[in-house]
Structure formats: C-alpha cells, structure tokens
Amino acid sequence: MGVLCCPLASLLLVLPLLESCGQPVASSRIVGGQNAQDGAWPWQASIRYKGFHICGGSLITEQWVVSAAHCFNRSLPPSDYSVSLGEFQLSIPSVNAFTSDVSQFIIHGDYNPYTFGSDIALVLLKRPLQYTTYILPICLPDRRDSTASGTLCSVTGWGNVHMTENLPPPQTLQEVQVSLMDAQMCNELYSEPITGSPGSRPIKEDMVCAGYTEGGRDSCQGDSGGPLVCSQNGSWFLIGIVSWGFGCGLPYRPGVYTRVSAYSDWIQQQVPSVELGVVNITISNQPNAGYTPAPTSLLLIASLLAGAALGNGATTLFLSC
To answer: What is the mean pLDDT of residues 91-104?
Structure first.
C-alpha cells in the first residue's frame, strides 16, 4: 500500500465533509429485486424488538427515525425496541453500524390498525448519532409534493424474498425498483377479484401505491416501515413508508405505502428541528462512538414476535411486521 505524501490529501482525511440529505456517497444501480451495495441507502434503519429485526425505518435527523405505526405496540415500553443504522448484512454485524435503544416512539393519533390509515410513527433514539458516509438522512417532501404516477422509485429492506421465504444468510439489504401509482389506479387494480381476495377499493388519499399490474416486484413481510424513495433533482426523497398489501408481488395487488407528504406538517410538529426539502449536513470522518454489534436477525422468529406484539390481526396482509 502506498503512503500519502500530498499535504492537501492528508488534510482532506481529517476535515468533515459537507453533503446534502438524500445523497449517498456510494451508488447503486437498480434493475429489479437484488442485493444492494453497501452504503447505497444510508438512511435505511433496522427496527428491532428485543434485539430481533422486525421492521425498517428511515433516518431523518441525528436522533429521529420515521417508520410505520403498525411496527409498534403502545402497551410495550420503548426500551423493548432498538434501532440500528449503517447495517448491510444482518447476519454479519458491520463496523459501520450504530445501534441505539429507543427513548420514545410517537404513533400518529389517527392510526387505524384495520384500514392502515395514518400508518406512520416517529422514533426517538436514546442517543444521537453523527453522520458518516454509511449513515445519512433522507430528504423529506413538503405537503405540496405530488410525485407523478409512473415515476420509477426504489424500495429497500431485509424482508422476505417471497411470501413464505425468508431472506437467506447473510441477509444482505435488498433493493427493488417499482413504479408509482395514484390512488384511483390502485383502487381499480384492488377491485379486481383474485384468489383469496374478492376485490375492494381500500386505498385512501394518505396512501400511495407502487408496483406493476402483473406483479413480480414488491416489498414483503419484514419490510414494513422501510423507505420508498424517489430521486428528484439529484437527491432522494422519502415518498412512502412500507405499510401493507395482499400477498407479495401478486398481479393486481401492488404494495401500499403511507404517503409521507400527507404527514409532513405532523412530522414538523413533533420534531421542530426537522427541515423539509434538501438540507445540507456535515459528515464526520470518525466512526460513531460506543459501537455495539447488533445481534443476528432471525427473521422468522422476529415475524412471530412482531405479530404477537402488534396484535393487529392482519392475517392476510403481508406487511404485518
């Protein structure tokens, strides 16, 4: 290995970097369901219940993560939950990871566990982190955002690769590209009867769908709470939160996501320090202090734990954890 002899190069190693939200240092090309690249989605969080991965989430500030309401149980203490960021392969703890206990979780007051309306929650980390190239926040849209139907966006998570098939070891973060659908088109698809589902029009205005009429690309069990992100003017924005669906990748049943722009004002009310739009941030060149390796995630056990903890009775909805 060579030795740095340039003073400027040496200086760059110690100076913090100025970046913007939603701009990962690593890049990743999306083709379809596949392994992500380490660091490509640095806002991706792993929500854990008693140490086991149950849901995804998205980092929005140094101490706040946004996820789905159905990932949490109000009757359980926040200390039962923890959040890990900077993870890549859940079976192999990463030196880039930061894990914190949860100090508080805020479930939206209008959350309906039967219709999945207002399926959004905010999670306060017990200790703040510092941004690194592997841990960065996602940009948040304001309430005026109306990303067009047909826009290609990306979903990431450690959920099942099929309805009954867990993500195999080493449980590498997965990414998939999906197409946005407006509520009217999504309701038309859901009104088509398929085996096990007679058809209905369950999509509300605070929801956004993503997927394809023929199915095949979708989020699945264990991805709940995770990010649906779309690129706008060079930055990634959190457009949706994985919420619910019927099956995984079935025809006429695209994934349904909480539309984040519908809750931008609520997020700002709960977290006054959060900013909407593109925000400049400082990246530290030092790792987060107090790194604690996260335990290996056992997704099958986690799914059972989450189902028991959440108690939402959603036996046919694939995003129950």
So the answer is: 94
